[in-house]
C-alpha cells in the first residue's frame, strides 16, 4: 500500500510482537490492536485479517462500531459469513465495505491459472 502512495501504513495484531515483526518486514509501523479498537489510532482504510467474526463468533468484531467512524473503506478477509458484524457496523458508519469473498474468488482464479495455464471462468 505504501508503494502505491499510501501516506502511512500501520499493522496491528492480537500479538504486538507479531505485528512488529510483520511491520519490520514490510517497512511500516506496528501499533497495538487495542489502540485501533479504542479509536485512538485512525485511518482511511481498515483491513481485518483475523478470524474474529467468523463462525462460531459471528457476534464479535475486532474493532467496535464507535472506532469505525471516519474510515472510508473497510475490508474483512472473512467470507463466511459474507457480511460480518465488522462490515455491518462499518457500512452503518458510512464506509464502503468489501467482504473476503472477493479475495477468495481472486485467489481461486490465480490458482486455476497456475495449475491449468488457462483463464478461469470467474462468473
Automatic annotation (TrEMBL):
Q: What is this protein called?
A: SDH C-terminal domain-containing protein
Q: Tell me the organism.
A: Pyramimonas obovata
Family annotation (Pfam families): SDH_C (PF18317)
- From which residue to which does the signal peptide run? none
Listed GO biological process terms? chorismate biosynthetic process; shikimate metabolic process
| Any one Gene Ontology molecular-function term assigned to this protein's record | shikimate 3-dehydrogenase (NADP+) activity
InterPro entries with a match to the protein in the record: NAD(P)-bd_dom_sf (IPR036291), SDH_C (IPR041121), Shikimate_DH_fam (IPR022893)
Lineage, broadest ranks: Eukaryota, Viridiplantae, Chlorophyta, Pyramimonadophyceae, Pyramimonadales
The SDH C-terminal domain is annotated at 100-123
Amino acid at each position: 500500500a505504501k508503494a502505491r502512495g499510501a501516506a502511512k501504513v500501520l499493522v496491528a495484531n492480537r500479538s504486538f510482537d507479531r505485528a512488529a515483526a510483520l511491520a519490520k518486514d514490510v517497512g511500516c509501523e506496528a501499533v497495538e490492536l487495542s489502540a485501533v479498537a479504542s479509536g485512538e489510532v485512525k485511518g482511511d482504510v481498515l483491513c481485518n485479517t483475523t478470524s474474529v467474526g467468523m463462525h462460531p463468533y459471528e457476534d464479535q468484531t475486532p474493532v467496535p462500531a464507535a472506532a469505525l467512524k471516519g474510515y472510508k473503506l473497510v475490508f474483512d478477509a472473512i467470507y463466511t459469513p459474507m457480511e460480518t458484524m465488522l462490515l455491518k457496523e462499518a457500512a452503518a458508519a458510512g464506509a464502503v465495505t468489501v467482504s473476503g469473498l472477493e479475495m477468495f474468488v481472486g485467489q481461486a482464479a490465480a490458482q486455476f491459472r497456475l495449475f491449468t495455464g488457462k483463464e478461469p471462468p470467474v462468473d
